[in-house]
Design goal:
- The protein is of the alpha+beta class.
- The protein has two domains: 74 residues, no CATH class; 60 residues, OB fold (Dihydrolipoamide Acetyltransferase, E2P).
- The chain has five helices and five strands.
- Helix 2 packs antiparallel against helix 3 and helix 3 packs across helix 4.
- The longest helix is centred in the middle third of the chain and has 19 residues.
Amino acid sequence: MSAEMIEILSNLGPFHWWALAVILVGIEMTMPTQYMLWPGLGAIVTGLLLLLFPGMPLVAQIVVFALTSGGLALSSRYWPRGAAEDDARVRLNQRTEGYVGRQAIVAEDFQGSRGVVVLDDSRWQAETIDGRPLPSRTVVEIIGSDGALLKVKPVG
């Protein structure tokens, strides 16, 4: 590296690091990954530390940038995921579990303990939990499911 280049790099200030952060996060916004987000946040942290400690040598700045970028990238892998993400993963192919607690309307008189209910403009096979037949237009609460079969009880 030439002496001029070292002189330029040794005069980096917090605004240079923040400009790098804007560039990296801007690139991240156009990509469907998180590869540039962590170095962008590392540049923000480095700029903040350089603002607090203006005499920080270039080597220390680069070490702070590398450690924060790498640390954030590694820790992001182990951060707890959001509750919505967990629910979506648990209920994958278990759509009927999401209906528990909701109400539906009996579409036709039940034959024995089984019949059809309407929920969200869809018809579902249902079964009463107590084995009683239900008349048409009865409001029922969904209390469980067995595959695509909803377990229901009359409301009221």
